[in-house]
Write a structure and sequence with these properties.
The structure is a single chain. With 355 residues, this protein is of the alpha/beta class. The protein contains 14 helices and nine strands. A seven-stranded mixed sheet has the order 1-9-6-5-2-3-4. The chain has a two-stranded antiparallel ribbon with strand order 7-8. 39% of the residues are buried.
């Protein structure tokens, strides 16, 4: 299965792109041993659904045709990070979408429908490489997939939090409270929501395909510390939010022709969107104050649990093997891996003999 996926698809699923102005420190995965991360579970789900596929781009499924690609990712890739690298996770699931985001969600749905039609056409014509790419772009997350992952996490005893609205806002709040070291994800929105730290590309191996050059490059983990990043730019978090609004976020369309660097220049010169003269920038997002409030005063759950509940071996075997069709040997190895994890965090369990 190819993993050389054009990252433009991932960027299309995320919020604002601030890469040109944000300083990122190259890191190694080993640097984060023992650290806890709040992660947008829905975004991770999308990534697993995009990458864990058959050569023609179709999903892995159980005997009844139900998708299992996402479960493979959470059961076996996440637990490698837990056990082999000592990384801890608090998974955060999206709640109800903010009304301002409905336009963006509708546009994403149209893009997926178009890609799905192109995938089917590519399969019919035998263009498998193109089919895989189109299949990735057609990735759709269902409520059943989300509930499957929650069931799996519960069986493994791993903590998850259901956000009242945006998972990224909740993840940022968890880091603000000190219940996690950083948010793990590719999306800069968590910095806008106030996360003190963001770690991008937190994976055992992550690659990016560069179509113009015809090859892939390995993406290394990157650490962004908000205080340092804002200090280097000479701006406040609220000003960073205004920059993002000018560029465009999930909640508003940006100003045509204004990228991160130009937006930074404008905000540093005039202080905030409200003060930019209309002869300099005739058109600005009409709802900028409302979008600013979304980021500066996010809706989050103040009370939540981040405790590890312990491994439920029976439930895990029943769910993955008997319900989802994973082999007994494979699930037994997962149980053994989770036993090792819980020994490392002080919760021991007993591996049952499965007949």
């Amino acid at each position: 299965m190819s993993r050389n996926i054009n990252n433009k698809w991932f960027e299309a699923q995320m919020g604002v792109n601030l890469t040109p102005i944000i300083v990122r420190k190259p890191m190694r995965l080993e640097n984060f041993r023992g650290e806890s991360f709040a992660v947008d579970a829905n975004q991770m789900l999308y990534q697993f659904l995009a990458l864990i596929r058959k050569p023609d781009g179709s999903f892995f499924t159980d005997a009844a045709g139900n998708v299992t690609s996402h479960l493979i990712g959470f059961a076996f890739r996440v637990t490698r990070l837990l056990c082999d690298y000592g990384v801890r996770f608090i998974f955060v699931f999206d709640g109800r979408p903010i009304p301002l985001k409905l336009r963006e969600l509708d546009e994403r749905r149209h893009r997926r429908e178009k890609a799905l039609a192109e995938w089917r056409r590519a399969i019919k014509e035998g263009r498998l490489a193109e089919a895989f790419s189109k299949a990735v772009s057609s990735t759709r997350l269902t409520s059943t997939m989300v509930e499957d992952v929650k069931m799996l996490l519960s069986a493994m005893g791993l903590p998850f939090v259901e956000a009242p609205s945006d998972a990224e806002a909740q993840a940022a709040f968890i880091v603000q409270k000190g219940d996690a070291y950083a948010v793990a994800g590719r999306d800069y929105d968590t910095l806008l929501y106030g996360s003190p730290r963001l770690v991008r590309n937190l994976a055992i191996r992550s690659t990016e395909f560069l179509p113009s050059k015809g090859y892939s490059k390995v993406l290394k983990p990157e650490l962004i510390e908000a205080e340092e990043a804002l200090g280097r730019l000479g701006i406040t978090r609220e000003q960073l939010v205004d920059i993002a609004i000018l560029v465009g976020t999930d909640f508003n369309q940006g100003v045509r022709g204004v990228g991160p660097k130009k937006a930074l220049q404008l905000i540093k010169k005039y202080g905030r969107i409200d003060e930019i003269p209309r002869n300099i920038l005739p058109r600005i997002p009409e709802n900028y104050s409302e979008v600013r409030r979304v980021f500066m005063e996010p809706d989050v759950r103040k009370e939540y649990s981040v405790k590890y509940a312990g491994l439920d071996e029976v439930r895990l075997m029943e769910f993955l093997h008997f319900e989802k069709g994973f082999s007994k040997d494979r699930v037994a190895k997962l149980i053994e891996r989770m036993r090792s994890f819980y020994r490392s965090v002080g919760k021991d369990t007993t591996l049952r003999e499965w007949i």
